[in-house]
Please model this.
Amino acid sequence: MRLRLGWGCARSGAARFLVALPALAVLGLAGCVPPGVATAPGGKSELSLSLVGFAALPGWQADHAAEALAVFRAGCSQLAEAAVNGTLGGQGQTAALGGKPADWRAACSAAANAAPGDDAAARQVFSDYFQPYQVADATAPAASRTQALFTGYFDPEVRGSRSPGGVYRTPLLGRPGDLVQVNLGAFAADLKGRSLAGRVEDGRLVPYYDRAQIEQGVLARRRLELMWLADPVDAFFLQVQGSGRVDLPDGRVVRVSYAGQNGRPYVAIGRILVDRSDMTMDQVSLASIRAWLEQHPDQAPALMDENPSYVFFREVNGLRPDQGPPGALGVPLVPGRSIAVDSAYIPLGAPVFIATTDPLSGAPIQRMMLAQDLGGAIKGPARADIFFGWGRAAEQRAGQMRAHGAEYVLLPRPVLAPAGAASVAQPQGEPATGGGAAAQ
Model:
């Protein structure tokens, strides 16, 4: 399940099955840290930023910058509608330079005026209005601090029906009316960023029903069924991803997306299979877990129930077949350009340049992507989940994607217009990135 901020949800590949998620994001320690280093929730990680020039981005000149700028521009429509005092996330310098919608106003205006499809013009907008920083985890061993971890996710396609019958016996549920989402930060400043979900019983908030209880029919009389799926394993994986496409018998396709989660912690069933010696860590992938569930139909329900987390859905209308599901930023995700991040460190909407490798071919992936989604399993500063799209090829890549590489976040320059020299300090020996060959 991909946790989102207000709009909807989607989730990631193999890593999601290995990582057990905490029920609450614990907000962290107070204390002093050096400039450019942000303390993470719970003090578990620290964001460290190193100022670099655009020339340091591997493959920057070869990337189709106009594609990336178009995706950034689409996100600007949501930034413009955000509340004046709304926050997009980030910690320390990322929050100070890009944590508020107003921080992106000048860059959004420039992106709107750039000629569509013109890579040179797009590169100029990026170099005029943004400053790149390499992302690192200051708490990691020195040799691996700048090694970001990248996983992948996709939009599943499953078979379903509007009514039960035949093979269509597994319900896909809408959000229950008694599911209560609580923003604890509204009650106490030291709880900012923490939330929980539950239901009210005898005037008290209690935990919501877990997966096993829901599968056993505790909500059966609520008439929450959006549709009925042909495969319970499909239903489980749809919840893991958080959004998808349901192919109806008449050929129509219904888009569904995250509408809520029961507040229970996510338990990785891949980890359970490893602990039980049913497979090794190296064997764990989306495909191998699906194969195990399908080969052990007598054990599959109990294994899936060991993950108490349960995701509810809503129908999404108005999306074209060639558009991805809406991400946390509220715009459709774009294959190969949209990523999910941990907004405790990286603000939503920020451009993020990624240098890693393709999980199938081993070819370099070096391109600008946009932080447009959130993920419950995406924790830490040097971490991103790449949206690969939909269909079999996307599923294969997302299921196998687990690679290291370099991550660079682009933050708005603290000026209101393009400048030949930025108002932030440049790296030693690096010219100001205000245009020209040196900027690229």
